[in-house]
UniProtKB/TrEMBL annotation:
A Pfam family the protein falls into: Amidohydro_1
Keyword Metal-binding: yes
Organismal lineage: Eukaryota, Sar, Stramenopiles, Bigyra, Opalozoa
GO MF terms held by the record: dihydroorotase activity; metal ion binding
Segments forming domain Amidohydrolase-related: 19-325
GO process annotations (BP): 'de novo' pyrimidine nucleobase biosynthetic process; 'de novo' UMP biosynthetic process
Coiled coil: none
Name assigned to this protein: dihydroorotase
Species of provenance: Cafeteria roenbergensis (Marine flagellate)
Pathway participation: Pyrimidine metabolism; UMP biosynthesis via de novo pathway; (S)-dihydroorotate from bicarbonate: step 3/3
E.C. designation(s): 3.5.2.3
Family that this chain belongs to: Belongs to the metallo-dependent hydrolases superfamily. DHOase family. Class II DHOase subfamily.
SUPFAM superfamilies to which the protein is assigned, alphabetical: Metallo-dependent hydrolases
Length: 356
């Protein structure tokens, strides 16, 4: 691997990345996503459990994992790390089953109603505290969609409100619990994570590094830039850039790639989600290069997350070349649908390929 302080501008190799936040969907949609994912790039992928119905038990997660492995093209060597969807009723015994299975890497907390298929999420934090404490005992991390769901709170303020009001309660109730604040979007979240103990980390998406909320309204309403948590201000984006530029091991790659059929985005009530799985590392490379810190990309993408999740660092490599590629305007999706990918139609300066 190239020296981390001076990556050559023409290209470089780095260890294969891992994606610690991916929505694979299920059935024909899952088959599409697996088909779009570049070969030999992402290795471990943390699979989100917000299917309908949600993946709430170890048994369901193992069945979902089997469906993924069955649908996976033979030349796509990803390793799915499964998650459980935390509900008010998840018993501590389910945590024991999850850990004992060896296939569950984390539990996901969605405040009820926060995002796509989150109706079964947590409504009363007191109810889940015994389960969170069991997770701390058994060493199973908690991934959090960190937004309050009170409709009276401004949509742009919901993450900051969660960070100041809810997160300290969770941390205090389950000391030692490893927590990943997912897809952080605000200065408040970045600063909280940076100042918290080593048990608290965060994932950052490519869209939140590249864009502020102006992009939602650039020349008109842009439904394909709508995700949750929503894009924030330029000051917030600058704080995320500072976080990755710092090289802190608390921040790592999680795309939150979340496909919806074009018709479900371009609608009276469009779904939240940005689909980046097909060119994720290229998009991150663009963001890091614009921020003048592409030397920080390899550890962000390939080391910090593996270390936090206590899985071995990847040794196989990918080649990141300064070779322009144009993102397709749309991709086939499920049965008779299409999905508009992140940065559709745009030319990206980097191409990522498995190192031969
Ligand atoms: Zn997500």
């Amino acid at each position: 691997m190239a020296d981390a302080t001076s990556l050559p501008s023409a290209g470089f190799t780095m260890p294969r990345p891992d994606d610690f936040h991916l929505h694979l969907r299920d059935g024909p949609e899952m088959a599409s996503v697996l088909g779009h994912m570049p070969r030999g790039v992402m290795h471990r992928v943390l699979i989100m459990p917000n299917l309908q119905p949600p993946v709430t038990t170890t048994e369901q997660a193992l069945a979902y994992r089997a469906r993924i492995l069955e649908a996976k093209p033979a030349d796509l060597d990803i390793e799915p790390l499964m998650t459980l969807y935390l509900t008010d009723k998840t018993p501590p015994e389910e945590i024991d089953a999850a850990v004992d299975s060896g296939a569950i890497a984390a539990v996901k907390l969605y405040p009820a109603g926060a995002t796509t298929n989150s109706d079964s999420g947590v409504t009363d934090y007191d109810l889940v505290m015994p389960t969170l404490r069991r997770m701390a005992e058994r060493g199973l991390p908690l991934c959090i969609h960190g937004e309050v769901t009170d409709p009276s709170v401004d949509v742009f303020e919901r993450e900051a409100a969660f960070v100041s009001e809810r997160l300290p309660l969770v941390l205090a109730a389950a000391p030692g619990l490893r927590i990943v604040l997912e897809h952080i979007t605000t200065r408040a979240a970045a600063e909280f994570v940076a100042s918290a103990g080593p048990n608290v980390a965060a994932t950052i998406t490519p869209q939140h590094l590249l864009f502020n909320r102006n992009e939602l309204f650039r020349g008109g309403l842009r439904p394909h830039m709508y995700c949750l948590p929503i894009l924030k201000t330029e000051d917030d984006r600058a704080a995320l850039i500072d976080a990755v530029r710092s090289g802190s091991p608390k921040f790592f790659l999680g795309t939150d790639s979340a496909p919806h059929a074009r018709g479900r985005k371009e609608s009276d009530c469009g779904c939240a989600g940005i689909y980046s799985a097909h060119t994720a590392l290229e998009a991150y490379a663009l963001a890091f290069e614009r921020a003048g810190c592409i030397d920080r990309l390899p550890a962000f993408a390939s080391q910090h997350g593996a270390d936090f999740y206590k899985v071995s660092r990847n040794t196989a490599e990918v080649t990141v070349s300064r070779k322009a590629r144009t993102v397709p305007a749309e991709l086939s999706f499920g049965e008779d649908c299409v999905v508009v990918p992140f940065l559709a139609g745009q030319e990206l300066p980097w191409t990522v390929e498995a190192t031969a």
